[in-house]
Amino acid sequence: MRSVVLLLLGAHLAYAGTHSLKYFYTGVSRDIDFPEYTAVGLVDEGQFYYFDSNIKQAVPKTEWIRQNEGADYWDRETQNMVGYHQNFKNSIQILKERFNQSAGVHTFQEMYGCEWDDQTRATNGFIQDGYDGEDFLSLDLKEMRWISPVQQGFITVQKWNKDRAYIESDKNYFSSVCIEWLKKYLEYGKSSLQKTVSPQVSLLQKDPSSPVTCHATGFYPSGVTITWMKNGQEHHEDVDLGELLPNEDGTFQKTSTIRVTPDEWKKNEFSCVVEHQGKTVTETEDKIRTNNGESFSIGIIVGALAAVVLLIIIAVAGYVVYKKKQGFKPVSGSDDGSNSSART
C-alpha cells in the first residue's frame, strides 16, 4: 500500500533572523463598493495598523500597538493618511492621462518598508509603486536612483533623480528611521511577536482522483517552506504553491497542491515536507481528509476569510508592487512609524 508521509522539520531556534516593517497603500479610481484609499501596516507580516477613506481614521490592529501608542500617534497618522488619500486620487488622474485612459477602474499602489536581521545586523529598505497591477516605479538604494520599466514612468524618474537631497532623505529613512521604528515595534510586541507556534499540517483531497493539498496552518512566525518529495527526491512538477495567508488569531497558513494521477500515486511514494521551527510529524495516506470524511475545507475557508480583507487592501487588482506617480514623491522620514512623503 502506498503511503503519503508528512514531515515537519526545522531548525531548533528561538524566533530570530530577519524582521520587517512594511506599509501597503492602495488607491482605487472610482467607487466599486471598496474604499478609495486603504493603508495597512505590517510587522513581521502581521497587521498592526489600518486606515481607509471610509472610516477616515487610523486604527490599531494589535494590543501591543494599542497599549504603547496614544491618541497623538493615531491623530498624526490619520492626518497623514487623509493627505495621502488626496495624493493618490491626483496621481491616478495623472496616470490615466499618461496611459491614455478615460474610463474603467484603475488602481495605484505603493509598498515600502525595511528589514533588519537581529543576528547579522544587516538592514535593507525598499519602496515600489504599481499601476493597474504592473510595476511602475522603484527606488534603487544601492545606485541611489529611481527606475521605471515603462515609458510612462520616465518623466517621473527624470524629475525625481534630479532631486539628490530627497533621495538622500529616502536613504536615511530606510537605513535609520524605519529601522528604529521597527525595533521599537518589536520591543512593544515582543511577548507575541517572539512566540513560536508550530503548524498543524493536513493532507487534503476531494476524492481519490483529485489533487492532494498539503495544508499548514496556525503557525507563527510566518517563515515556512513546503516542498513535495517523490521517492525521496524533491519533486516540483505539477505543484502549485499557495500564498502565505494570515489567520484571524495572528497566525498564518499556507498550502501546496500536487497534481498526479491515481496510478502514479500507487507506483510511487510521495511526501510533503514542511519546514518550520523544530518538530517532526508523520502522517500516512489513511489520514488524508476528504469530502467523504471531515470537512477539510473549513479550516482553509476560515483562515482565508480572515485574510480576504487584508489581501484586498494590499492588492485590489492582484498582489503586486506599489507607489506613487509624477509629482508624487516618496519617503520623508516622519516622526512616527510610517512614511509621510506623498505629495504632488
From TrEMBL:
Keyword set includes Lipoprotein: no
GO-annotated cellular components: external side of plasma membrane; extracellular space
UniProt cross-references to Pfam families, sorted A to Z: C1-set, MHC_I
Keyword Signal: yes
Keywords: Glycoprotein, Immunoglobulin domain, Membrane, Signal, Transmembrane, Transmembrane helix
SUPFAM superfamilies found in the cross-reference section: Immunoglobulin, MHC antigen-recognition domain
Transmembrane segment boundaries: 296-322
Native source species: Ctenopharyngodon idella
Biological process terms in GO annotation: immune response
Signal peptide: 1-16
Name recorded for this polypeptide: MHC class I antigen
Cross-referenced InterPro entries: Ig-like_dom, Ig-like_dom_sf, Ig-like_fold, Ig/MHC_CS, Ig_C1-set, MHC_class-I_related, MHC_I-like_Ag-recog, MHC_I-like_Ag-recog_sf
Family: Belongs to the MHC class I family.
Every Ig-like domain range: 199-289
SMART domains in UniProt: IGc1
Gene3D superfamilies, per the entry: Immunoglobulins, MHC class I-like antigen recognition-like
